[in-house]
Amino acid sequence: MKRVALSLLLAALAAAGDSRPDPKKAQREYEQGLRYEQAGQWQQAYDSFSASLAANQNAPAYVHRAKAEVSLNLPEKAADDLTDAIRLTPQDAEVWRARGEIQLKLGRQRKAIDDLTHAIDLGAATSGAYAMRAAAHEQLGNHDLAATDYGHAIRLRLDDPEPWKARGMALSAMGRYRDAIDDFEQAIHLKPNDAAPYLERGFAYGQLGEFSLAIQDFDRTLRLQPATVRALTLRGAAWSNAGEYAKAIDDFSAAIKLTPSDADLYLARASVYAAQADHENALADREEAVRLKPDSAVAHVARGGSYHQLGMHEKGLEDRTEAIRLDPRLEVAWNARGNAYFLLGEYRKAIDDLNQALQLAPKDQEAKDVLAKAQAALEKAEVKPQPAPVAEPVSPPVTVIEDHAPMPAPGPALAEIKAVPIPPKPLTTDPQAAAAYNLRGRELLNQGKYAEAIEELSKAIVRQPDLALAYNARGFAYYLSREYAQALSDLDQAIRLNPKYLNAYHNRSLARRAAGDAAGAAADSKKEHELTAAAR
What we know:
The structure is a single chain. The protein is mainly alpha-helical. The chain is built from 28 helices and no strands. It has helices spanning 2-18, 23-38, 42-55, 59-71, 75-88, 93-105, 109-121, 127-139, 143-156, 161-173, 177-190, 195-207, 211-224, 229-241, 245-258, 263-275, 279-292, 297-309, 313-326, 331-343, 347-360, 365-383, 431-446, 450-463, 468-480, 484-497, 502-514, 518-535. Helix 2 (23-38) runs parallel beside helix 4, helix 4 packs antiparallel against helix 5 and helix 13 (211-224) packs antiparallel against helix 14 (229-241). The longest helix has 19 residues, at 365-383. The chain is elongated, with a radius of gyration of 36 Å. 46% of the residues are buried.
């Protein structure tokens, strides 16, 4: 037993003797590691630096083994080695900078900022150090701090386009688009064949509403990098804002071809189809978006809009109800369902939904306006029945539900596209809004508010110049206002648009008789009777 204990003691002493520092061996292994590093033989370099550290702990070996570990895709181990290097040489600014860089790659932005601040304070106030700290601030959403640090980086390296470009992006994120454009222009001057600053400058121009300049920059981007989905998507949005819908659809279609599983691109293209009143294609795209992203509340709101446009109101309400279930904090879903209930005459439900929308977004003017109308309509319905139309006994108009689908942000890399809104629908191609204005105009006409009715009906005509209903109603409003020339002009147009419009002939007969044209009045009255007989 004593012999065993003695053997263990001797072995322990021998092991302790083997673990004694060997600076010479450490230096030899370190130098060998440097040769492997210069040759790009990273595993051999790692082994040599490890042997150096086993022989004698030293900061240079930790630093260079960390470099090898980064090349071998072992960033966690690299950070640990740099921590050991800092323990041995806490005043070495370069080691703090190197660990800050690793922390940034690992997504540890706050630790990266701490390390890089140490490095800068210890004397490593280089353009690269400031740029890295700026990038960490930018990733945390601290755009102002990022812009300040990029400014330091620029002053230290005026000839480097990267900080100019990066500061431009930070300024753009702050909404300082003019300043951002200046930075992008400098980046382009320094490196004219880099597509990125053209793309970012185009985005900034788009935010300022300067769509022709935005499109020019997106064109340049695509000449340099033809398959850039983000450039196609942003150019599609710019074309859409400029009213060039066919070109917008072409760009969104090209983007979809490159990334066919991106639901947001289908939503973007659908918004353009909807702006053209091509609701069948809009629905097809929104169906695909829901299939690709069934848990997207925005996709359900959008598809609901298409269902309503095509008269499938139950499905439209189901989609918007599902959107609310998926995201009860999505104001646009409550607003959209409230609008739908209002236009379908379900005023109490509309009021409930619009109140909820306003709780989520108290400044939403549209929700306030529709809520006021719903409350007035409910009060009117409860006090007395709706008066018969003055102009003509017509069946209730086809209910048109406003399309509340927001312009999506196509994918994480394209999140900023939400800042380039879908354009206001051009006044000449917006039948859904035209129908709403027509309905309001007729309500005002029934109430004897002729001037207000004419104003609303004029808006309907501007948004849909071929809407015979609106010309007839406005013509009748002018007739009741004793403005016979305007009345006849509108009623003539209503008949040109719809030669079998019985009520328009009736109203024109009244206007002609009031204007002293008895023969014309008789002719219109005769035509009215002929159309009535033919309809029996």
